[in-house]
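This protein record is not my work; I was only asked to verify it. The record follows directly below this note.
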Amino acid sequence: MHKQVMDSSAGSPGELMAAVEQMVRYVRRGTTSGGLSTAASSALNRLGQEGPQRLTELARAENVSQPNMTQLVTRMERAGLVRRDPDQADGRGVLVTATDHGTEVFRERRAERAQALQRLIEALPEAEQNAVKIALPALARAIHDQQNHR
């Protein structure tokens, strides 16, 4: 098995992106609860984190067309993961909400991803573990800051 080691001179944007993609694939492979597609997992994750959303907002946030999101929500609704409720602020609109079952699947999947990430971190030397524990929250803050300045 070939093991790639990144030294302190590594770190070009391309190398970092490859590392992020590899990490995301690894963590996703360790997530099996609910047997969801990537699209359904992403939508359920968004609803679990952010709460109910209008179908149009969910489609925009997930970067898919409204017809595709409508089909996805219909499949998720049949699986008992989400429900559609009237939007109290706009009677014409519909809010997509995670059901209790959907919330449980979201929590199980999040715990599985956290365990997969923890296994990766624990495989590193202590200094690199500490660096990851500083870098990942810093990147999350940067993402949050950029999204709030749009």
In short: The chain has six helices and three strands. The helical segments are 13-29, 38-50, 55-62, 66-78, 100-122, 126-148. The mean pLDDT is 88. The CA atoms of residues 59 and 68 lie 8 Å apart.
